Amino acid sequence: MIKIIIIILILLFFISKQIKSTKTIENFITWYLPFYNKSTLELTNNTPAYLTSNLELNYLKYDTFNTINVYILKKNIYYDFNFENILKNTKINKLFLHNNDTSFDILKNVNDNINNLGILSSIFLVNNVYNISNNAKNINFVINSNYKYIFFIVNEFSKISKLSEINNKKINIGSKYSDENYFGKNIIQNLNNKYGIYPKKILEYNNDDSFKKLKNGEIDGMIYTDTFISEILNKKLNNITGKLILIPIEDINDKIFTERHPFIEKVSLDQNYLPKNYLPIKIKDLYYNKFRPDLTSYKYPNVIICNKDASPKLIYNIIKSISSNLDTINNSKFVLENYWNYLSFPNISTNYIIPNHIGANLFYEKITVNTTYSDNLCKYYVGNAKCTPEKIEGARIISDNTI
Questions:
Q1: Sorting pLDDT into bands at 50, 70 and 90, what band is 279?
Q2: Coil vs helix vs strand at 166
Q3: Within a domain: 80
Q4: CA distances from 38 to 32, 33, 79, 329 (A)
Q5: 378 and 281: one domain?
Q6: Rounded to the nearest 5 degrees, what angle is found at the Cα of 237, between the Cα atoms of 124 and 292?
Q7: H runs (alpha helix) in 240-280
Q8: pLDDT by residue (tens digit) across 10-56?
Q9: pLDDT tens, residue by residue, 310-338
Q10: pLDDT, mean of residues 227-244
């Protein structure tokens, strides 16, 4: 009898412990449910600060990162530099860069695998991410990695010196779904609305074919997008017999163009960093030389994306690694030859397109890039204090190295 009583008491003890444990877990879930989406690992906008600090402990309980794949359209010096030297601080065991044939391939590779990262242009994401539900439902934002630029290139025999002179000309806007195609259609429509002009033919050749046809005089001009300095563009300008000339991206309705593409920024590029034999240029009323080399263009970011279920600690550490090495990146030849490539906060954390990954949110909240204060004056100021211009001017972004 005594043995039975002891067994019953032991059972009651364990049952009570289990009930208590279950109740604790239930209370934990109930407490956090209003602020935490378990399926997306995202905090809601109204998460109180005192909960955020507790949730961080749970989000960041991840240990090692084995093999990480980064998918890009084409390798270049910048990506080699960035991923081989900067991201090594994330303590990833193996990191591989892969070339993909199309941006859709990159999107699918990241959407389907939590260990894959990708780099896609902001214009591609804007035009596709909400329309490709199956290949974009798991896509989250990490950080802007670098910038690309819009170029309009003509053969000097076309006698085009400005965009408003493309009326009745043969213009290539790049293959379907390319950055060139998206921007090209917008620019042509913009010019049509402003001047009532329209090309004789709008063509959709890929860039390689377009350069060949431009060289041969089969087309008059082409839209081209790339980094600047561009290995490909420099090689084309240096090797193609007969002058190819970059035309400034002007004459369009700038207000409408920037409203349509809020992620772009108007810039002025130094053409002295093109091949040495490129300048001087004289075509109609357009004249550039080494003392007056500035070319009007627009820059837009390439975006590092990840799977929404990627390890928060991995994404946090990738951003931390990039941000803590911004001095190294910004002292590279890539930036020194074009100061518009300079990377800084809050610009590289600005995302108009897709949800931030929770690891990205945690980092940006720590360095005061995100804010819960609704005053437009305090867009990048965290906290509930009244914001003033003086506070903004005196603000400092400090990264946290404790995690």
A1: very high
A2: coil
A3: no
A4: 10, 8, 33, 36
A5: no
A6: 95
A7: 254-260
A8: 544 444 444 333 332 222 333 334 555 555 555 565 555 444 443 44
A9: 888 888 888 888 877 787 788 888 888 99
A10: 85
Phi, psi of 360 (to 5 degrees): -70, -45
C-alpha distance from residue 130 to each of 126, 181, 277, 348 (Å): 8, 18, 44, 22
Residues 277 and 183 in one domain: yes
Domain membership of residue 225 (yes or no) is: yes
pLDDT at 375: 45
Which one-letter amino acid corresponds to residue 11?
L
Amino acid at 251: D
Residue reference for tokens 């934002």: 141
DSSP 31-58: HHGGGEETTTTEE-TT--HHHHHHHHHH
Residues 398 and 280 in one domain: no
Q: How many domains does the chain fold into?
A: 3
**Residue 378, domain extent:** 371-403
| Strand pairing category for 286-288 and 281-283 | antiparallel
pLDDT averaged over every residue in the chain: 78
Q: Nearest 5 degrees, angle CA 30-CA 31-CA 34?
A: 85
- pLDDT 10s digits, 77-114: 666 666 666 666 666 777 788 887 789 999 999 999 99
pLDDT given at position 96: 80
Q: What is the mean pLDDT of residues 232-261?
A: 89
**Predicted confidence (pLDDT) per residue in 335-382, tens digit:** 889 999 998 888 899 887 888 998 888 888 776 555 444 444 444 444
Q: Chain centroid to CA 139: how far?
A: 13
The residue among 57, 72, 91 that closes a domain is 57
Q: E strands within 156-259?
A: 170-172, 201-203, 221-226, 244-247
**Cβ-Cβ contacts under 8 Å for 16 (sequence gap 6 or more):** none
Q: Who has greater pLDDT, 147 or 21?
A: 147
Q: Which residue has the tokens 């090594």?
A: 88
Of 335, 160, 185, 318, residue with least CA distance to 246: 160
Is residue 212 included in any domain, yes or no? Answer: yes
Q: Are 306 and 315 in contact (CB under 8 A)?
A: yes
d(Cα 33, Cα 46) in Å, to the nearest integer? 12
Give the separation between CA 368 and CA 364, rounded to whole angstroms.
6
CATH classification of the domain holding 242: 3.40.190.10
Contact yes or no for 197/191 (Cβ under 8 A): yes
Prediction pTM value: 0.76
Residue 15 burial (C-beta neighbours within 10 Å; 0-12, 13-18, 19+): exposed
In a domain, 321, yes or no: no
